[in-house]
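In keeping with the milestone schedule agreed at the kick-off meeting, the structural modelling team has produced records for the first pair of proteins. Each record is given below as a sequence line and a structure-token line. The laboratory manager (R.T.) confirmed that both were archived under the project's standard naming scheme.
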Amino acid sequence: MAKNSTGYYFLLPSIIVLGFTSVYPAVYSFILSFYNWNWGAQQDFVGLSNYLFLLGDREFWIVIKNTFLFAFFACSIEVTLGILLAIYIDRISFGAGIIRSILLIPLMISGIVVSLMSKMMLNKLFGVIPYLMKQIGFSSGFYGTKDSAMWTLIGVDAWWQTAFVFIIILAGLQSIPKEPIEAARIDGVSEWGITRYIRLPMIRSLIFLVILFRSIDTLKIFDLVWGATGGGPGLSTEVVQTYAYRTAYGFLQMSKAMTIIVIFSIIVALLTIFYHRVDRKMR
């Protein structure tokens, strides 16, 4: 028994660090959401007032809608493109390493750099992309209009993070045993049939895990939005993380900012539970 419990002592430092860096801030934020604290020394207990205010606030629900809109479309595009690229690269031999290296370049760039770079390249006055589009007779407001700003962010995030999906799915495809694929080829099954009925079903759990990771990552997007649009124009690209940051440091309403994060964390937790139940039923 003593021998089996030795491993827990090695885990103890990590547990302590995790407690101070994750558990304690989460619990303290939850407690603070029941108070009215504006960065001063005074903290007034207000009960559920912050929650009732936010649940009845129109701006809050616009921000929630923006966040899930961004997460749904960005995740869908990235997963679809990542799987298609992985299937293609897995089937070719010449130049696969070069293509793989090129596709991984965006992942090496931080979010704030991606946002600033896209902001310059898509600027309507001096950006290279609007200039090239104008030469062929097309035009777009990109970050400058409410109708196009969110879709521009989704496109930039897809360019940035598709490689994450690609590299994981490619690793899964290359780990599949060759025997079932060779047997299917002998039976005359087409490459599309092999991919659809053998390759993809064998990495179904991996695809589901990638969807879970990308869903959570897109739901907590901050740096790309903050650096590119700051949540504008208006509230067209405001997401939960930027909204909470602005509430805390722009309007000095720390308790309301914590309430925003608590409500959103509950929504994300429910979404994660739903994902796990779906995954269990699929298995």
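The second protein of the pair:
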Amino acid sequence: MAVVKATATLTDINGNPLSGKTIKFYYSDDGETWNLLGTAVTDENGRAGIVDWIEHTTYYKAVFEGDDIYEPSEATAEFRFGLVIFSLVNLTPTSINVKIGSEFTVSVTIRNDGSESGTCKVQLIDHEGTVQDEKSDTIAPGEEKTFTLTGTAPTYVTEVTYVVKWVPA
């Protein structure tokens, strides 16, 4: 599942933003049958947006129905879901017990379950939110890549949680 923000910008014929105008947002699975997703009012820059959760390719239409001054207008867009979908296959080890200040490594295997190649960035983030190591590589559809990340334990005795994060680069 992915979060999409459909955004429309409404301007007059000279390109000046129109604020305070209602935009209706529609979605469609086939680009033909439209369902109302919701409405939003344009801001001072003429922009309005709405958030949607999708699981497949989805079409969007933004409609301004017009008013006493301006004629109606609409625009459509397509969001292609599933082009690149990175999944965690393996994280080894899942628990580490090391001396204070010592280096350690973790191995992270990521698979691309999507339909197109994409570059994946894998990060090891410490308890203070600092990225201790990161690697990136392109992963083809159906392919798995293993990344080895190195971290350093704190210089004091404590129990610490590290986060491994993978994102499109």
